[in-house]
Specification:
The structure is a homotetramer of 215-residue chains.
Chain A (H helix, E strand, L loop, with lengths): L8 H17 L1 H10 L5 E6 L6 H4 L7 E6 L15 H12 L4 E7 L3 H10 L12 H6 L3 H5 L6 H20 L3 H8 L4 E8 L4 E6 L4 E4 L1
Parallel strand pairs in A: 1-2, 1-3, 3-4
Antiparallel strand pairs in A: 4-5, 5-6
Chain lengths: 215, 215, 215, 215
C-alpha cells in the first residue's frame, strides 16, 4: 500500500531558508562532499532522543561523524544469524568500510528507553515483557545492567543504569571480531560518554577505575 | 572486557566551548527539556551518512525531532519474533510512547548502503551474499527495489534505488499495526523525502503519482 | 655546506610526550590520514606571527585546514613569470589540486609586518626601501593600502592598514583566474577576518559595506 | 572587485566557544602577548599540509613559534632581486627582526608537493613543466634533490626526496648572509626534521653522517 502525505509547511519553509543561506554559502563544500564521498573520523552511537544533538555538542561539520541512533544507544551482542541487524550493519559499515578511527557511545540523562528497562525488570511494566514488544525485546540488551544495580533510591539507580547502557555497549562492541581486531591493531579506539541534558555536563567512562569522570 | 580510551583533545575543547556558549545561553531551556521530558512532533528516519544533517536542513531545535539513523534509512518488515529489532523498537517507542504526529523517511544521494545493495544484487559483491555479512543481510530489505529497477545506465538506476529505499520503508511502515492504526485514526502522517547532497535539493514522495517531486 | 644542530632538549621531550599521549590515543586516525591523504575543507592564509594559532581559535582537527602562513597574510598579485612564488603555488595547489571550498584570509592586531609597511611608507624606515630588503619588497604588496589611509592617529591608521592587508589579499585572490573561476562556478568562497589578539575578538569583512563587522 | 562571503556557521560557533573558554581562561596572557609583542625562541618552516600541526607535536604555547608554512617546507636560494619573496621575507623578519635562536625545517611523509616534483622530473606531469605553473616553478627548488636520487622503488625514492626537501632548505638557508652570519656568531642554530604522519615518528637530520636519525 502506497501512502504518504505532503510535508508540513513549516518544514518546507525552513528547508527553503536553509537552501538559500547555509547551503548557498557553502555550495562548493556540499558539492565536494558529494563527489569525494565521506571520510568521517568517528562513528557516534547515540540515542534517538530529540534532546541529544551530538553535532551541536561537538561543533561538528558536515562529514565529520558517522552517526547511528537507536533507543538507549545500545549495541546488541554479536550474532551473525542471517537476520536483519541494523546496529551491527552500521558498525560493520563504519569499521570495515569507512575505517573510522573512533567509536563514541553517547548515553544521556532522562533516557526513556532505560527507564522502560528499569520498569520492565522491576515488574512495573508487564507489557514490556510481552514477546511481541519491540521496545521490551530491544531493552533486553540492558538487562544484565539492571541485575547488577546497587540498592538505593530510584533516581540514583536509573542514572547508574543509563551509564550501564554505555558500558554494556562498549563491552558488546568488543565481541565483534572486526571491532576487537581493529582495536588490537591500534586502528580503532572506543570511547564511552554520558551526557546530562539539563546541566550540560559530560562524563567519560574510565576503564581503569570502571567509573565515569566529569570533564 | 572493559576497554575505553580518553576522548581526543579537540573534541574535549569543542565540548567545553559548547558548554560555555550554546548551553550557557539557553540553560533554562535545557533544564526544562530535562524536567519536562521530550515532546517531539516528528520522528525522522535517516541514514548514518556523515554528510546528512537533518537538524541543519530543517533548522531543528533541541527537542523537535526524534531521530533514528541506520544504514540507508530502512524500515524492515514487521516481524515480532522476540529478537532484538532496533528500528522497530524506535518506531514503537515514537508512535506508542511519544505519540509523534509525523514520521519522515529521509533518503539521500550517494548512499553507500544502497550502492552495496546494488552491487550485491548484480553479483559484483559476493562478500555481501555471505549469511554472516551484517551489511548484506540488512540491505536484503531493499532487494525488492532492485528487482523492479528499469533498464538504464548505472547512475540512474542507483538514484532510482535510493528513492526505492524510501518507498519500501514507507510501505513497511504501514505493515506495523500501531503505525497503520494511527494513520487511519488521523493521528499520524508519513512522509518520504530524498535529498541531493551536492545540489542541496529535496524531493518529496507523492503517493498519487508514485513518484518524487522537487520542492 | 651541510649544517644542522640537534634539536633543543625541551622540544625532544615534548615530542616524546605527544607521541606517548596524543598520538597513541588516536593512532588509528593518524594512520588513516596517512593512507587516505588530506581532504581539507578550507585553506587558511594567516600571518607567521607566533601569537596567531588558527587551529586553536577554530577547534581544528588534524586534516581540516590547509594552512599557508607568511608575513602579514598577504597574497601578491597574479604574476606567472616563471619565478618561485610560494604563496601562489600554495593557492594553486589548494584550489586546483585539493579543490578546497573556502579560502580564509586571517589578519590580526599588532602585526609587525604591517607596522614595517607603515614605517616604510611614511619614511620612518629607509632600510626597508632598500631593493635588497626582502621584508620591504614583500610589504610593497600592501602599499596601495597605505596610500588610501584616512588621516587620524597612528594606532587607528595601523589598525586600518592591518584590515587593508586582508582586503587587498582578497582582491588579489580574485586576480588569479583559477580562483575567480571557482568562485563564479560556486565551488569556492572567500572570507576575510581580522583577529584582535589581546581581546580575543574576531571581525569579518563584509563586501557590501566594505567594512569589518564583529562577531 | 570586492568579494567575500560570511564564515560557515560551524566555525562561528567554534570561535565563540574558544572565546568563552580558552581565551577567557587566559585573558591576562593574551593581553600581555598583545602589549609586549612576540618574542618567539624559534622559527618553524613547515608544509601547508592539513595533517601537519607543529603546535600539537611540540605542545606549543601561543607566542612560542614563529611559523612559516609553504608547499613542501622549501627555502628558495638567496636572490635579492627586488621582487616579492614571501619565504625570504619571513626569514629576514625572524632572524633580523625577532632574532630567533633556532630555525627548524620540518618535512613530512606523503607530501603532495614533493610527489608533484617527482612526477614533473620523471616526465609524468608535463603540466607542471609549464612556465605558468606556480606549483611547478616552486618545486623547481627541489629539482637538485631529484637528480641525486639513488635507484630503487618509487616509495623509497619519494621518501628520500621528502628528506631532500629538508636538506636543500637547510643548505639554501646558509646562503642567506644574515643566516650564516648569525650561525657563525653562535646566535642561531638550524635543525632539520622529517615527520612520519601515520607512525607519529620524527627523524632529525644529522650533518655529520648526512643522514636522518629517529628520535
Amino acid at each position: 500500500m502506497k501512502y504518504a502525505k505532503p510535508l508540513p509547511d513549516y518544514l518546507v519553509r525552513r528547508y527553503h531558508g536553509w537552501k538559500a543561506t547555509t547551503y548557498q554559502e557553502s555550495k562548493g563544500w556540499y558539492r565536494r562532499l558529494a563527489e569525494d564521498g565521506q571520510h568521517p573520523r568517528a562513528m557516534v552511537i547515540s540515542c534517538c532522543d530529540s534532546r541529544v544533538h551530538v553535532t551541536s555538542i561537538f561543533g561538528a561539520d558536515q562529514g565529520e561523524f558517522f552517526i547511528h541512533r537507536n533507543i538507549a544507544n545500545l549495541v546488541p551482542p554479536h550474532n551473525p544469524d542471517g537476520h536483519h541487524h541494523g546496529t551491527s550493519a552500521a558498525l560493520e559499515y563504519a569499521v570495515r568500510g569507512l575505517k573510522v578511527s573512533h567509536i563514541i557511545v553517547l548515553g544521556h540523562s532522562g533516557c526513556g528507553g532505560v527507564e522502560g528497562c528499569y520498569q520492565m525488570c522491576s515488574g512495573e511494566a508487564p507489557e514490556l515483557d510481552d514477546p511481541k514488544s519491540f521496545v521490551g525485546r530491544w531493552m533486553d540488551i540492558l538487562r544484565p545492567g539492571f541485575e547488577e544495580l546497587p540498592k538505593g533510591d530510584k533516581a540514583e539507580r536509573m542514572r547508574t543504569l543509563e551509564k550501564a547502557s554505555v558500558v554494556i555497549s562498549l563491552s558488546n562492541l568488543m565481541g565483534f571480531p572486526f571491532v576487537s581486531d581493529a582495536v588490537k591493531d591500534g586502528n580503532l579506539s572506543l570511547h564511552g560518554l554520558w551526557h546530562d541534558i539539563g546541566e550540560g555536563a559530560l562524563e567519560a567512562y574510565d576503564a581503569e577505575t570502571d567509573g565515569f569522570v566529569p570533564f
